[in-house]
Amino acid sequence: MSEIKNQPIQQFLDELASKSATPGGGSAAAIMGAQGAALISMVCNLTIGKPKFAEVESEMQALLAQAEDLRAQLTDFIQADVDVFNRVMAAYGLPKETDEDKTARSAAIQAVMKDATIVPLECAKACAKTITLSQIAAEKGNPNVISDAGAAVMAAYGGLKTAALNVYINAGSLKDRDFAEAKIAELAAIMQDAETTTEAIYQVIKAKL
Amino acid sequence: MSEIKNQPIQQFLDELASKSATPGGGSAAAIMGAQGAALISMVCNLTIGKPKFAEVESEMQALLAQAEDLRAQLTDFIQADVDVFNRVMAAYGLPKETDEDKTARSAAIQAVMKDATIVPLECAKACAKTITLSQIAAEKGNPNVISDAGAAVMAAYGGLKTAALNVYINAGSLKDRDFAEAKIAELAAIMQDAETTTEAIYQVIKAKL
User: Count of alpha carbons within 13 Å of A109, Cβ hemisphere only?
Assistant: First the structure.
């Protein structure tokens, strides 16, 4: 099957809405994050090369490179979420006739569930970085497109909060509680200031409109 | 040019990131909202027809119809944002040689700016309705996909806050202050409880994971 990023938006939305289990919220989170990173790049691309903003030229070049790196990562997570979910389903589908079967199936489920915790956690981290970068875009980018920096922070925030739900749900089914708690702690660290930071960036932008 | 909804996701993200002024935050807002509505439909489609949820069957059917209606509206706003922006640019491009030119140009800009205020306002309204519907999906939908109801509310919230920025910025350039203030008041009414409602729905879902 072709990768989701190669599907028309309409087809993706139709499949998201359908009763098929994939794509789901995890892919939606990655698309929100990727839109956030793309909007930062847009602000950079509409700032770079303009004499009026020569003072921030190198900073905007660096910001663009970081945003494009995050966009590539987040675009990959659109598919990664579906792939890991399909692996979870495959593990649940393993035979469970004998005790040996049951042990092997349980081990397979637990192993893939760790990956299914890591994928949204990494997506959440990339979204959190996108929130941080959007502040620079809002403060130093071309003020004519400051509302796009605002769109960036809101898209990234939506992606972060959505990816977080998938970390909670998958970590919750892990028997290795040390691993699960460590991942939830990593998530908590990046979530801690996200809401306040996002709202602060949004209000700065709103005040400049 | 083909409609944005028919473009592959990768191409849309590339064009969003580019120095082209469109697509921008307004289209990103509409896609966030459409993803939110699609995720509500997903929850409905994974609830309807299951004997376990027979009690909420008719409510889920009604919710699905509403979510699909909102999804269609929000998908239309992806393109509508670009179309109205292009009309704004065309108005700014009108000749301004003579006094007569200037008067006609200014009138054309002001007329299309009203539309450029209405388009994101309507998008914001559809996102706000999506937030409201996601609460029903979270409370009564199949609990196995409750995290997708959480993704729905966050996507719709991101869409709402982003569309709002475009209302503020375009209303700000209107000379007809009565019209502008009326539109900002309409927006304020739907924004008022959005943050609290979104966070409440999110916390209900998180607690159920």
Answer: 18
| Residue that has been written with the tokens 């998008």 in this structure | B123
ipTM: 0.97
What distance in Å separates the CA atoms of residue A2 and residue B8, rounded to the nearest whole number?
Answer: 11
Encoded tokens for A196:
């306040």
Contact B33, B127 (CB under 8 A): yes
The three-class DSSP label of residue B8 is strand
- Cβ <8 Å between A209 and B172: yes
Size of interface A-B (CB pairs under 8 A): 191
Shortest distance between the Cα of A103 and any Cα of chain B, in A, equals 24
CB A42 within 8 A of CB B19: yes
First to last CA, chain A: 44
Report the C-alpha gap between A202 and A147 in whole angstroms. 9
pLDDT (tens digit per residue) in A73-131: 999 999 999 999 999 999 999 999 999 999 999 999 999 999 999 999 999 999 999 99
Whether the Cβ atoms of residue B47 and residue B56 lie closer than 8 Å to each other: yes
Burial of B55 (0-12, 13-18, 19+ CB in 10 A): exposed
Among the partner-chain residues B21, B25, B169, the one whose CB lies closest to the CB of A39 is: B25
- The closest alpha carbon to A199, from A154, A139, A134, belongs to A154
Q: How far is CA A121 from the centre of its chain?
A: 8
**Residue B19: which H helix or E strand, with range?**
none
Would you call A21 exposed, middle or buried from its count of C-beta atoms within 10 A (0-12, 13-18, 19+)? middle
Burial of A47 (0-12, 13-18, 19+ CB in 10 A): buried
Name chain A contacts of B10, Cβ cutoff 8 Å. Answer: 5-6, 75
- List B8's β-bridge partners, or say none: A8
- Copy the structure tokens of residue B157: 């919230």
Q: Do B168 and A209 touch (CB under 8 A)?
A: yes
C-alpha distance from B38 to closest chain A C-alpha (Å): 4
- Record the pTM: 0.97
Nearest to B131 by CA among B111, B150, B117, B147: B150
